[in-house]
């Protein structure tokens, strides 16, 4: 299992445009990427903060997600809307 968390700070004037694109990206990732097992889109008390929680089979599956034409188009479409972005990667620890 490979987990990814992303915390976005979205420019306030862009949040209404960003959210539909983000939800479409999550939905399509789940539908078209068999090794994407979970893709949650969350918002906190600050409506301009968006938190993603993604689960992939392994790092290779996540790398395929990042390299896809669909993700590249999404990333380009939202880049000007994002004030900041923090990504963290986690690998399952087994005994």
TrEMBL record:
What is the native source organism of this protein?
Cognatishimia maritima
Q: Which UniProt keywords apply?
A: Monooxygenase, Oxidoreductase
Q: Pinpoint the ABM domain residues.
A: 2-90
Q: Which SUPFAM superfamilies match?
A: Dimeric alpha+beta barrel
- Protein name, entry field: Quinol monooxygenase YgiN
The GO terms this record gives for MF are: monooxygenase activity
The source's domain of life comes to Bacteria
Quote the PANTHER family the UniProt record gives: (4S)-4-HYDROXY-5-PHOSPHONOOXYPENTANE-2,3-DIONE ISOMERASE, QUINOL MONOOXYGENASE YGIN-RELATED
Q: Name the Pfam families for this protein.
A: ABM (PF03992)
Q: Which InterPro entries match?
A: ABM_dom (IPR007138), AI-2_Isomerase_LsrG (IPR050744), Dimeric_a/b-barrel (IPR011008)
């Amino acid at each position: 299992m490979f987990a990814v968390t992303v915390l976005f700070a979205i420019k306030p004037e862009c949040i209404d445009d960003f959210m539909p694109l983000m939800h479409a990206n999550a939905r399509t990732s789940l539908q078209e990427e068999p090794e994407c097992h979970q893709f949650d889109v969350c918002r906190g008390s600050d409506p301009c903060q968006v938190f993603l929680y993604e689960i992939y089979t392994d790092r290779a599956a996540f790398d395929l997600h990042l390299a896809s034409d669909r993700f590249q188009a999404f990333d380009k479409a939202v880049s000007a809307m994002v004030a900041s972005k923090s990504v963290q990667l986690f690998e399952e620890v087994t005994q």
